[in-house]
Amino acid sequence: MRAKKIAVIGAGVSGLGAIKSCLEEGLEPVCFEKNNDIGGLWNYEETPKNRIPGIYKSLTSNTSKEMTAFSDFPMPDHYPNYLHHSKMMEYIRMYASHFGLINYIQFQTKVCRVKKRPDFSSSGQWEVVVEMDGKQKTCIFDGIMICSGHYNQKHFPLQDFSGIKKFRGKYLHTWEYKHPDNFVGKRVVVIGIGNSGADVAGEISRVAEQIFLSTRRGAWIWNRVWDNGNPMDATLFTRYNRTVQKFCPTFLINRWTENKLNARFNHANYGLQAKHRIFSHQTVINDDLPNHIISGRVLIKPNVKEFTETSAIFEDGTEEKIDAVVFATGYTFSLPFLEDEDILDNQHSMFKCVFPPHLEKPTLAFIGLLQPAGSIIPTSELQSRWAVRVFAGLQKLPSESDMLAEINRRKKEVEKQCVKSPGSVRRVQFIYYMDEIASEIGVKPNLFSLLIWDTKLAMEMLYGPCTPYQYRLQGPGKWTGARTAILTQRNRILKPLRTRVLKDSGFSSSLFLFKSICAIILLFLAMLVITSMVCH
Ligand SMILES: Cc1cc2nc3c(=O)[nH]c(=O)nc-3n(C[C@H](O)[C@H](O)[C@H](O)COP(=O)(O)OP(=O)(O)OC[C@H]3O[C@@H](n4cnc5c(N)ncnc54)[C@H](O)[C@@H]3O)c2cc1C
Ligand SMILES: *[C@@H]1O[C@H](CO)[C@@H](O)[C@H](O)[C@H]1NC(C)=O
Ligand SMILES: *[C@@H]1O[C@H](CO)[C@@H](O)[C@H](O)[C@H]1NC(C)=O
């Protein structure tokens, strides 16, 4: 049989994972990338040309390296835990060259249109129109993986800011922002407190005369450096925590986390108190902001009501003279090449964020179109592993009505828990979502049997960071290095910090013993519950 030909749109981290997954299942990928290089967002360019989103010179990842790695390619042990974009790019290049992915990419080739073929209901095939060197070409594919990015369009709502056209100073979107040099000695308003807004405000504040950071609804601020100096995500995203959270009412978890963040600095006193509970909206990861606020370089302000020629008037009536405005209003996405197809409704409802439910044949998948409260790379990689198995006919999707029911169930859940915002249906909880997709593929680790057969590994998987290697222990795509990768992950976290070596503090065996006993009791209780259920 002829290998199925799959079009992969975009060669960012999602596209690279998609190419690799196609190769794993014996499919034939052709990746189209409109730029001349891989890496998408992480490929920094000094002068913004066409790459959206644009990143700034100082951008450092907000997810730590062990949580961010591809599942069968851990980052080198000497890499820092949070990576500057140049280091991230270095890792992405290593991944692409290690698995020989570059040969499958056609650079400077833009996908203009993706259309069902006339015989789609029987063949499931697509027609893809691409443009290279100004010339258009049509190709036929058996499957499509859309990896064009979740942030490929600027959100720049100038119409919401009256008077901005009169303002005589400079204003720009963070897309154009690269470094603080143009803001020396200036008075600047930064609009919006997402990850970028907080970063940019802090960075400019070191050279500017004054920064005003304007926020409509406040924000909860996490720090990368967590208790004992460990990476935040690697500390909190554990299976143990996830189990505790499952049995804990949401309000308690919200309160626990909010108290924890308020213990670092009181969000109300710092003018940041959010109108929402912590887990109902996007949060911000920033280590420096409270330092800039307490030293007065950044002043938190409410929404801007109006701009005049030389000032900003805030909703509390205060007016500040300013020289420049930075709009950190974020990004959205668009799928212009799908415009005349009715594949998606206007809310972009998809089955588990991957498959549009209305197609006669499941031959199109969205990869990386989601907002995990965690790293995107392993999440989109897992989506690809699932999608290629469906394309290859090794797995089936539920019926259209079952998929719609599942989509509606998720929508209701999100509506109950989250602040209403366009992206909220694509918000997913990291471990929960990874496990959900892994179950579809049959690669979700079986912790109970591991507790019996490989206690050491199971313990690390329960109490240690829930790293992507856990999804390579069994099933399709199994990687023999996965066990070692999990057992050595803490060494890779500590290695880059230990640049002045002290006497080793040693491994606490009594703690290990204590934790083993807890796990065995847990297992015993679970077995009791199961036997009592079976008996009645
Ligand atoms: C400022 C910022 C910081 C972030 N920090 C982190 C972080 O620390 N950790 C993390 O996990 N995530 C982070 N993210 C999320 C980030 O989106 C992901 O890490 C990741 O880059 C997503 O990769 P992607 O391949 O899905 O999309 P992208 O990186 O956007 O790549 C999409 C690719 O598709 C190409 N393309 C688009 N349309 C077409 C077309 N029509 N034809 C051909 N090619 C096309 C583009 O040129 C691009 O190369 C951050 C996002 C932003 C904006
Ligand atoms: C998660 O676990 C870590 C250590 O294992 C602990 O410090 C932290 O408080 C836990 N967090 C939650 C939300 O349970
Ligand atoms: C990291 O920053 C990006 C860009 O602002 C954001 O979309 C993402 O949600 C952040 N990640 C986490 C885990 O908060």
Write the layout of secondary structure elements.
Elements: E1 5-9, H1 13-24, E2 28-32, H2 65-68, H3 85-98, E3 105-106, E4 110-116, H4 120-123, E5 126-132, E6 135-141, E7 143-146, E8 153-154, E9 170-173, E10 187-191, H5 195-205, E11 210-214, E12 221-222, H6 232-236, H7 239-247, H8 250-264, E13 284-285, H9 289-294, E14 298-301, E15 304-307, E16 311-314, E17 319-321, E18 324-327, E19 331-332, E20 364-366, E21 371-372, H10 377-391, H11 400-417, E22 427-428, H12 430-441, H13 447-453, H14 455-463, H15 482-487, H16 489-494, H17 509-535
Parallel strand pairs: 1-2, 1-7, 2-3, 7-20, 9-18, 10-11, 10-18, 11-14, 12-13, 21-22
Antiparallel strand pairs: 4-5, 5-6, 8-19, 15-16, 16-17
Bound molecules: flavin-adenine dinucleotide (FAD) and 2-acetamido-2-deoxy-beta-D-glucopyranose (NAG) (2 copies).
Residues 9-15, 32-35, 40-42, 53, 55, 59, 61-63, 68, 110-111, 147-152, 196, 337, 368, 375-377, 380 line the site of flavin-adenine dinucleotide.
